[in-house]
Amino acid sequence: MRTFGRKLMSNRRVRFGMRGRAISKVMEGLHFLEPVAQILEGAGRSVLDPLPPEHREFALEVLKKFEAKEAWLAVNP
């Protein structure tokens, strides 16, 4: 019984450690969305210029969805 408890605690530590690393990897993967946030906060679209073409295209698609929602809200208050 004691070994089971120790193993359970050990597994829990491993899972928490993996979660921290997984979150940082996800944040690294989503780093290219930072310019999108800057544009939504009022920056110009020139912040997209340094992005690789595939990231820039995806960022523009995301921004189009926000623009469509804003346009709809302007017409339908």
Folded structure, characterized:
The chain has one domain. It has three helices and no strands. The longest helix is centred in the N-terminal third of the chain and has 28 residues. The N and C termini lie far apart (63 Å).
Radius of gyration over alpha carbons? Answer: 21 Å
Count of DSSP H/I helices: 3
Any low-confidence stretches, pLDDT <50, length ≥5? none
What overall geometry do the principal axes of the alpha carbons give?
globular
Rounded average pLDDT:
75
**What level of helicity do the residues show?**
over 70%
Measured by DSSP, the beta-strand proportion falls in under 5%
Quickly give the structural class: mainly alpha
What is the multimeric organization of the chains shown? single chain
Order of helices and strands: HHH
Which keywords apply here?
77 residues; 0% strand
Topology (SSEs and partners):
Elements (H helix, E strand, L loop, with lengths): L1 H28 L4 H7 L12 H23 L2
Helix pairs in contact: 2-3
In short:
The termini are far apart.
